[in-house]
Amino acid sequence: MNWEGFPERVHIQEVVTRDGLQIEPRFLPTQEKIALIDALSLTGVSKIEVTSFVSPRAVPNLADAREVAGAIKRRPGVTYVALVPNLRGAQEALAANMDELNLVMSVSETHNLANMRMTPAQSLEAFRTIVDAARGTPAALNGSIATAFGCPFEGIQPEDKVLRLAEAYLALGLDSVTLADTTGMGNPRQVASLVGAFRRRFGSVPLTLHFHNTRGMGLANVLAALDAGADRFDASLGGLGGCPFAPGATGNISTEDLVHMLDEMGVATGVDLGRLIELARGLPALLGHDIPGQVAKAGRSGDLHPAPADIRLAAK
Amino acid sequence: MNWEGFPERVHIQEVVTRDGLQIEPRFLPTQEKIALIDALSLTGVSKIEVTSFVSPRAVPNLADAREVAGAIKRRPGVTYVALVPNLRGAQEALAANMDELNLVMSVSETHNLANMRMTPAQSLEAFRTIVDAARGTPAALNGSIATAFGCPFEGIQPEDKVLRLAEAYLALGLDSVTLADTTGMGNPRQVASLVGAFRRRFGSVPLTLHFHNTRGMGLANVLAALDAGADRFDASLGGLGGCPFAPGATGNISTEDLVHMLDEMGVATGVDLGRLIELARGLPALLGHDIPGQVAKAGRSGDLHPAPADIRLAAK
Questions:
Q1: What would the mean pLDDT of B240-246 be, rounded to a whole number?
Q2: How far is B278 from chain A (nearest CA, A)?
């Protein structure tokens, strides 16, 4: 491990109100979403994926995308992102003046058909129309590659197939790329290999890693990615999230667990972990259930406890 | 990360019936413990920490230590271990013909007083009497250093203090050392540093890493330890466990999640992951509650799912 070569600053990108909420059993009221995003804006995260401009039939929990995007307080220095599944969603996101549009398709044909209801060629064609629509606007365009570390239907995807899709994204004019482990299938060695290959092929093109903790490897994958030169990570407050089309999947990596690990290793994020933990601790009351994130329960490593009283006596 | 330098074979040491069960709210019947240990003996794990010969008042769940140790089927190639807190426990473990005695104290004075009710000097003196008692028997002696990566009362312990305690263990005649992250406070960078320092100071003295996943860093710590040359890990089926004196702590790292990650990275363990997962999936019925381990719920990365039927039609 090349600890000295770790990035000086890691960007934390919060996705809880999009990826985290989309599969929640209960609809989180619009005002609560807005309040949560406004609070997250004050934590020091680099990006917030606010919502998705998706059909309310497909994702009822995000049916209020327009209201949410229109009402949040935009804090300078934070990039506000919307996931867009198609041209119509992109038009809405542009109308809502989002800083960035996150376009997504799966490298796995089967997952793309299941998740996007499009063939990969249809998805790329939709991307092209979105690039055209965004031309001349200030919006940045990020392209996400879902199932980049494995598809629950097809299995591991060849590295070169993933890289060729990233190449197609960049050829279309997208600004940056996210490699997403949509259903938490990636392992650290695979992550290091793909991140290294991406860096060799695409140099300094901004790269985000989007990990899920489905099989407990989330933070180990972060460590491997850091070692391979990654410096941007998506994460979800409390570890909420998952993919509605990924059987058995649990949550995204938890933002507060991620920032805690980076803090403990001395890797700067600019994020106020105390505020994050406070917000994560408020989630069970908002959602009506426990959260997978662990630091919100256990506290930071540095949160010491008083020694038992009888011990203090015995030690005298 | 030096992937090529990873150990060719990693030893998996199962602690569920000791560390996993000691804080369970319900007593697991003796016959169930024996059946679980006998099943674990067939999975390919290198060691099984069978029980602890501890006062039944201190750990009621392990009050049947003698019956369990006497009734399990000893499988050649598996080392059967008992944790012993003092000379009396050691005498019982020797009488039970255990392959290995695991002696434990904390590097943190406060935690040792809270957990063992002894000062460090008293603990080391007890170790000496155990070494004397074991002399001439075939039992191996392992020394565990609890709170090696941080104490919930005192905080991070200086690396040199940990190494000096390991040195004292070896000077007393112990055969091997475990560095235990008793309450899950360690981070990957710290783990790499301490494992590296241990290796430099003590060469090939067998070293076990005992991690808890209290703050989500368990498998990331394993990765860092592997990279620093560790090849023996304690883990607990289902991720059961914790420390009764560590406020807020959740579980040990999950054996099946650990073996799954190693399998996925191509690191050999000799363990049959399928059997482990089956056993982990049986735990909720045995214990009456859900388990923290994730692979038992999500399945392996390679367990693929059939594509939705309507998608298979659309793809034609």
A1: 67
A2: 16
